[in-house]
Amino acid sequence: MALSIGIVGLPNVGKSTLFNALTKAQNAEAANYPFCTIERNHAVVPVPDPRLEALAKIVSPERIVAATVEFVDIAGLVRGASTGEGLGNQFLGHIRETAAIVHVVRCFEDEDIVHVEGSIDPVRDIEVIETELMLADLQAAEVKAEKLARKAKGDKEAVIQLECVRRLIDHLGAGRTAAEFPERDTHLGEEILADLGLITSKAVIFAANVDEAGLAEDNDHVRRVREIAARRGCPVGKISAKVEEELVGLDDAERADFLASYGVTESGIEQVIRECYEVLGLVSYFTAGPKEVRAWTIHQGWKAPKAASVIHTDFEKGFIRAEVISYRDYIAHRGEHGCRTAGLLRVEGKDYVVQDGDVMHFRFNV
């Protein structure tokens, strides 16, 4: 399954610089003025997972295939974006398609980089973005209500849907996100939110963008972001977009030394991707053979047939059984043969819940 994540934030907070690092290419122009990103930028990037290399050392495959994430970067949003101010409003529809939102917040001082609001204030900046996204969702809900009102004459189902959408409109109009909508967990509420693709119904990860000095220890701006995130129940990843760009092209040893020089062991991008996986309840299982070692992304709790479907739908339809080895056992016993000898290869049926790190082989018949 492909994971898609939208990147939002005010202009000049480091979104495009971060995007350049994510894609390892300068295909999102970074410049010191608002609205420098005027086209939708998207790219598929590999998910960092050291387990792949460990498996490959045992299997010696022809290739290694990591799980992937698609990042979508849109123009910076400003006050009034929902009513047409700036350029970001033109691209809000693109992030309606994503599974989660990375909200980049500027947490560094630099007089040479202008701020669209005139000063550095993470709390205000977050509120500006959240307000614009809620207003955009409110407009989408109002359009839906108009359509349902026309359809409701003589259509009982449309009447029920209209009543729910009107409650949603009242909720959004009161300044609350779609994620806080009391009916979101009901069948009808879930159906309507999915149909509308409301932005504020998505999981949010805050990315606090700091300068090099802010990586090892939180500054006051980062602490304020963490306070807001804690109230929202959202994770925070601390990044330095500038450092991320400098990491591009370095090998593993060089990356480790470079990060260590700033007092950290993990890049901001790795933090953000890991937080996205956790907040969305995603895990990875592996397939390993002479042709390839590959990671496959699934939702936590999926049973074996559903997990097999990400390889091919036929695997789910004709599922017979799954041969499973835990990652730890696979590494400890140097591969499938060693695990078979030690009696650690398990045969699991349709009710088996796939675990993060399982090395799997599916048997099927269509």
**Low-pLDDT stretches:** 25-38
End-to-end span in angstroms?
22 Å
Describe the largest sheet: 6 strands, mixed
N-to-C order of helices and strands: EHEHEEHEHHHEHEHHHEEHHEHHEE
Question: What does this protein look like?
Answer:
By secondary structure, the chain is of the alpha/beta class. 40% of the residues lie in helices and 19% in strands. It is built from 14 helices and 12 strands. The chain has helices spanning 15-23, 50-59, 92-95, 122-151, 156-173, 187-196, 220-232, 241-247, 252-260, 268-280, 304-308, 313-317, 327-332, 336-341; strands at 3-8, 41-46, 63-65, 68-73, 100-106, 203-209, 236-239, 282-288, 292-299, 319-325, 346-348, 359-364. It has a 6-stranded mixed sheet with strand order 2-4-1-5-6-7, sandwiched between helices. Strands 3-9-8 form a 3-stranded mixed sheet. A 3-stranded antiparallel sheet has the order 11-10-12. Strand 8 and strand 9 form a beta hairpin. Helix 1 runs parallel beside helix 8. The chain is flat and about 65 Å long.
Core attributes:
366 residues, alpha/beta, three-stranded mixed beta sheet, 12 strands
Compact description:
With 366 residues, this protein is of the alpha/beta class. It is 40% helix and 19% strand.
